[in-house]
Design goal:
3 domains; 71% helix; mainly alpha; 9 helices
């Protein structure tokens, strides 16, 4: 679909005002509307200047949503931010502010998951919980630490 520059600006501004968007999301929309590169650049610059696009605000919102609503770990969140071309200098301070929230979140979801995990041995149950945590994007050392807090045991049991 071909749009004029002013139509595209109005549409992408409305798109950005509905939810936090990163520059890559807006750029994809503009490219799909077959706008020339110069027009895309002008529109993106204007959106940034007027506050519709803000990578720091997007990163903060994205991290909070994925941690609290989707219950993702730091590894998965960082991967998704890198996919969206968000620089580490933007999202790293936000992740640092959260501190122990990742551990608290993992303890909560492992507590719920532990009730439904069926395994013949305690070792099997711990292994399944650790794999679950890794699938959610939590680091191996955090997963082991939280499983050990929850079920008891020691770290050396899982280290080869």
């Amino acid at each position: 679909m071909k749009l004029s520059e002013s139509q595209a600006l109005a549409r992408v501004a409305a798109y950005c005002s509905k939810a936090e968007r990163c520059e890559l999301d807006a750029r994809k929309k503009l490219v799909a509307w077959e706008l020339p590169d110069e027009a895309v650049k002008r529109i993106l610059d204007r959106l940034k200047k007027e506050g519709f696009l803000d990578e720091t605000r997007f990163a903060r919102s994205f991290i909070n949503d994925k941690l609290k609503l989707n219950k993702w770990g730091k590894t998965k969140i960082v991967y998704e931010l890198k996919k969206r071309s968000i620089p580490e200098s933007i999202y790293f301070p936000v992740l640092e502010e959260l501190g122990d929230e990742f551990e608290e979140q993992l303890i909560r979801i492992l507590t719920v998951k532990a009730k439904s995990v069926k395994a013949e041995t305690e070792y099997g149950k711990k292994t399944k919980l650790i794999r679950f945590a890794l699938g959610r994007g939590f680091s191996m050392d955090l997963a082991i630490r939280c499983v050990n807090k929850l079920l008891g045991g020691n770290y050396e049991e899982f280290v080869s």
